[in-house]
TrEMBL record:
Keyword list, A-Z: Hydrolase, Metal-binding, Zinc
SUPFAM superfamilies: Arginase/deacetylase
InterPro entries: HDAC_I/II (IPR003084), HDACs (IPR000286), His_deacetylse_dom (IPR023801), His_deacetylse_dom_sf (IPR037138), Ureohydrolase_dom_sf (IPR023696)
Protein's name according to its UniProt entry: Class II histone deacetylase
Family: Belongs to the histone deacetylase family.
GO molecular function, one term: hydrolase activity
Organism expressing this protein natively: Halorarum salinum
Length: 376
């Protein structure tokens, strides 16, 4: 491990994944003269990398991950699904039936690299508390279920990382997912288990496909059997912004994770709750994401001896994704970065956040999860 403050696990192979073009994330429409590229485009992660190289030049180091092996993937995914995905991509890929998820010939290999990056970040967190391990993954993973692709995701990077940590001696892992979409695949992977706590805060979008995405992300989805109570879903109303996310952590995420007391904290870091994201309706800004970075850093320091790793998920307004992710690392490293022309501002922060609705929804979440956790 390096002496850098941020260790980015990255490989250019992840840029080769390319979903089919169409009308935004959907198939082409006759009322749209020119098809547009899918929102999961390579510029998303290229912009994050540019931000890190500019804002944290001396603090950032890169490591090239190994591809996840078949054995490592099968800790989470069914062999039959992996066979299908590999063959589907080898045949050129395409759109998966009537979903918004699509692949090309490079997707399976790129996804194996992304899964390997997440595993490497988890190992680094267990081995070295001096650097923040960050898996800059593409494609994302948290919607991928054990037996299917879903929501632009093919292999569940954070779930594979959690399994890697458990295989290396961790007794328990907490996954905090602040992506604006429910991490249904991660939930599915650990729904009956108590060795992985899954806390997801997300828009109240419900199920978006009866076959590929049946989970709703509702308060009532709490796990089953030995895992009952270890899935903690917190739906948030449209317009939730910086204050709402801060209250979410203070009232639910922080007390639950502290009570669970994991050996490792993993973050599904999707910055699509940002104020300009076209795939969401929330209002978090650079400052709000800074607070999220502060929260998870303190959680890891207070529960897991500083063992923390971030795994990149969504974020689809490619310019704002850089500002939002900058905020995350400003919070993690406890520093502000002055940008030419922008200073410490967020150029996309222009709407006021509704407050009473957020408070009411958080009251409901606290009341519901109090069955399992000491919440006030």
């Amino acid at each position: 491990m390096t002496d850098d403050e941020i260790t980015v696990f990255w490989h250019d192979r992840m840029l080769d994944h390319e979903p089919p073009a169409g009308t935004y994330k959907y198939p082409a429409s006759p009322i749209v003269a020119g098809e547009e590229r899918h929102p999961d485009r390579r510029e998303r992660v290229e912009n994050i990398k540019a931000m890190l190289d500019h804002a944290f030049t001396e603090a950032t180091g890169y490591e090239s991950p190994e591809r996840a092996t078949r054995e490592e993937l099968e800790r989470v995914h069914d062999p039959e699904y992996l066979d299908w995905l590999e063959a589907f991509c080898a045949d050129g890929g395409g759109r998966i039936e009537d979903t918004t998820t699509g692949a090309n010939e490079a997707t399976f290999d790129a996804a194996r690299v992304a899964a390997g990056a997440a595993m490497a970040a988890a190992r680094a967190a267990l081995d070295d508390g001096d650097s923040v391990p960050y898996a800059l993954c593409r494609p994302s993973g948290h919607h991928a279920q054990p037996d299917r692709a879903d929501g632009f995701c093919f292999l569940n990077n954070v779930a594979i990382a959690a399994e890697e940590a458990l295989s290396r001696g961790a007794d328990s892992v907490a996954i905090v997912d602040w992506d604006v979409h429910h991490g249904n695949g991660t939930q599915e992977a650990f729904y009956g288990r108590e060795d992985v706590l899954f806390v997801s805060a997300h828009a109240d979008h419900g199920s978006w496909h009866p076959e590929y995405h049946p989970q709703e992300g509702s308060l009532g989805e709490v796990g089953n059997g030995a895992g009952e109570g270890y899935t903690v879903n917190v739906p948030l109303p449209p317009g939730t912004g910086d204050r709402g996310y801060d209250a979410l952590f203070e009232r639910v995420v922080n007390p639950v994770v502290r009570e669970y007391d994991p050996d490792l904290v993993l973050v599904s870091a999707g910055q699509d709750a940002g104020a300009a994201d076209p795939n969401a309706r929330n209002l978090a800004t650079r400052d709000g994401f800074l607070r999220l970075g502060e929260h998870v850093r303190r959680l890891a320091d207070g529960t897991a001896d500083g063992r923390l790793a971030l795994v990149q998920e969504g974020g689809y307004q490619q310019s704002h994704l850089s500002f939002a992710t900058l905020g995350v690392f400003e919070g993690l490293l406890d520093r502000r970065v002055e940008l030419e022309q922008f200073g410490t501002d967020d150029p996309f922060a222009w709407l006021d956040e509704p407050t009473e609705l957020v408070d009411a929804w958080l009251d409901e979440a606290v009341d519901h999860h109090r069955t399992y956790w000491n919440l006030e």
